[in-house]
């Protein structure tokens, strides 16, 4: 529920119920995920039972009671080694031929062609059933992961609602008075403060005398009334305040501001880069930088990396946590078969209120943080998105300070460097660079990587950002 500093009952009772219901839903989804879990697991190949069933089917269709050779159902206990050999031969070649059968069978069986045809058909059917079973189990496991992640998302939102503080009574009179002076009437208002001290305001307002006021002007009035912090209107709202009452959402700007830079080079012989990236604010007070490297190069790689970037950004814009967003995207890629062309993802989320950066990586290259104390390297594993289920993103957390720089690169940049320890070579180059604006740094790093090769062997992308404390 919203904790209150004074008696203010407009929303509190509703949110006690909301937080409880969200938590109940999260628990239900968790129980549902556990109920779907059993001991079944994907199998790697055909089993002895599959081989015996294929032999029995072939014997029933062809042998008609003949027991002259050793290849018939009644003698499988005496031929375990041969049975395993037969299965492995089929898996390696896709069929069993005369060379895989016992000599006595070849010499005595008069219908060996029919027998081999039925045997191959039986083993082929078993292989198809195995593939469908494993695909089903993989899809089921992906759905279980979705249930679990939805439960986590609801728990996070329930926690956010429960720990938000309603500070409306502290500022209600001042805010209404300031807007009234500018001929704007506040009919309803809700002012919240979250755990990281980020504040948010919902103002239902209208103008007097039929005049119109831009929301930017309204944000400046709110700033003057609050006497501290800088405010802006949320991007999902209206642009004008008119004589018709409407609710407009305002958010407090963070203590930090961020500027970005990017530079890229396309692989020689290709017309389009397989890398994709994005940066900007997805939520009030939260900025992101994301870089995805599609498998290979060209159009297919570009489509795969773009899908990863777009899905991740949409989930973050909807309020998903970074961890939940990455796991949800990975699950979607597995279910849609994108695992044949996996893409890496490098994601940095920066809290502009606290300056804390969360970096999450799936198969991505190292991220570098340049500060007054030198260059720090953040690394993770090498598993790309859509290649394993379940996959757990690697979370790396770092506190950023005034005038720090963030550098993200795709694999193509590192691959172009001649050193054995490519990450260290790039780290030393970044340490020796002058600290300038992010775009200049991105251009310098790309130029450095390109200096070692006349023709780019892979797509190269450099994404940089500088963070500054607001004055």
Automatic annotation (TrEMBL):
Name of this chain's protein: PPM-type phosphatase domain-containing protein
Q: Which Pfam families match?
A: SpoIIE, SpoIIE_N
Keyword Hydrolase annotated? yes
- Lipid metabolism as a keyword of this entry, yes or no, is no
Q: Which keywords accompany this UniProt record?
A: Hydrolase
**Source organism per UniProt:** Lacrimispora amygdalina
Note the Gene3D superfamilies from the entry: PPM-type phosphatase domain
Domain PPM-type phosphatase, by residue range, is 255-467
């Amino acid at each position: 529920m919203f904790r209150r500093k004074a008696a203010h009952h407009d929303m509190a009772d509703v949110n006690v119920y909301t937080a409880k219901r969200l938590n109940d839903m999260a628990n239900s989804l968790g129980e549902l995920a556990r109920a779907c879990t059993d001991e079944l697991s994907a199998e790697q190949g055909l089993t002895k039972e599959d081989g015996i069933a294929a032999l029995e089917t072939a014997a029933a269709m062809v042998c008609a009671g003949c027991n002259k050779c050793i290849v018939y159902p009644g003698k499988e206990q005496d031929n375990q080694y041969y049975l395993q050999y037969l299965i492995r031969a089929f898996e390696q070649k896709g069929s069993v031929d005369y060379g895989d059968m016992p000599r006595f069978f070849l010499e005595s069986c008069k219908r060996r062609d029919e027998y081999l045809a039925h045997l191959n058909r039986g083993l082929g059917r078993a292989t198809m059933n195995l593939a469908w079973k494993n695909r089903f189990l993989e899809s089921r496991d992906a759905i279980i992961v979705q249930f679990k992640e939805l439960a986590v998302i609801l728990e996070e939102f329930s926690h956010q609602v429960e720990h938000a503080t309603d500070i409306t009574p502290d500022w209600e009179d001042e805010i209404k008075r300031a807007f009234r002076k500018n001929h704007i009437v506040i009919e309803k208002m809700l002012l919240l403060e979250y755990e990281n001290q980020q504040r948010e305001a919902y103002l239902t307002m209208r103008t007097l005398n039929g005049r119109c006021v831009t929301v930017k002007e309204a944000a400046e009035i709110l700033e003057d009334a609050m006497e501290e912090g800088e405010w802006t209107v949320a991007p999902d709202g209206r642009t004008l305040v008119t004589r018709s009452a409407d609710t407009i959402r305002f958010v407090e700007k963070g203590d930090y501001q961020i500027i970005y830079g990017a530079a890229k080079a396309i692989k020689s012989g290709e017309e389009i880069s397989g890398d994709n990236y994005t940066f900007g604010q997805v939520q009030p007070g939260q900025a992101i930088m994301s870089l995805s490297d599609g498998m290979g190069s060209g159009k297919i790689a570009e489509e795969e990396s773009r899908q990863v970037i777009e899905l991740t950004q949409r989930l973050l814009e909807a309020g998903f946590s970074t961890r939940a967003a990455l796991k949800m995207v990975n699950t979607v890629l597995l279910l849609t078969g994108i695992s044949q062309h996996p893409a890496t993802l490098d994601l940095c989320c920066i809290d502009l209120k606290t300056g804390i950066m969360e970096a999450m990586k799936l198969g991505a290259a190292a991220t570098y943080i340049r500060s007054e104390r030198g260059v720090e390297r953040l690394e993770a594993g090498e598993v790309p998105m859509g290649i394993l289920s379940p996959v757990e993103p690697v979370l790396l957390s770092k506190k950023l300070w005034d005038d720090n720089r963030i550098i993200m690169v795709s694999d193509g940049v590192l691959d172009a460097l001649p050193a054995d320890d490519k990450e260290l070579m790039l780290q030393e180059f970044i340490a020796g660079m002058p600290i300038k604006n992010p775009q200049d740094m991105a251009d310098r790093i790309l130029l450095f990587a390109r200096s070692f090769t006349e023709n780019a062997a892979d797509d190269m992308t450099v994404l940089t950002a500088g963070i500054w404390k607001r004055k």
